[in-house]
Amino acid sequence: MTHGTHNALADPRNADVRIYINGELQHREDAKISVFDSGYLVGDGVWEGLRLHDGVLVFLDEHLDRLWQGAATIGMDLGMSRQELTARIQQTLDAN
């Protein structure tokens, strides 16, 4: 394994995690993005880290506000509504 500044300890709880990419839930080993994705090619993107506590997404509305504000700042269309994204997040949580 290559070592760098982003090393992390393996966590067996993540062995079977499912990841939502482009409309599909994929096993972590199969989850890939294209090398031609603009986030990879030029590094454009926005993100928010979410916390799940006792089955509740903490401060979800505030996180989504920041996500949409960040996307607007760089002229990025997120490709779905807040309601659609919330549904995809819940779908991912349910799968895991």
TrEMBL record:
Question: What species is given as this protein's source?
Answer: marine metagenome
**Official protein name in the record:** Aminotransferase class IV
The record's family statement is: Belongs to the class-IV pyridoxal-phosphate-dependent aminotransferase family.
What InterPro entries does this protein map onto?
Aminotrans_IV, Aminotransferase-like, BCAT-like_N, Class-IV_PLP-Dep_Aminotrnsfr
The GO terms this record gives for MF are: catalytic activity
Write one Pfam family the protein is assigned to: Aminotran_4
GO biological process annotation, one example: carboxylic acid biosynthetic process
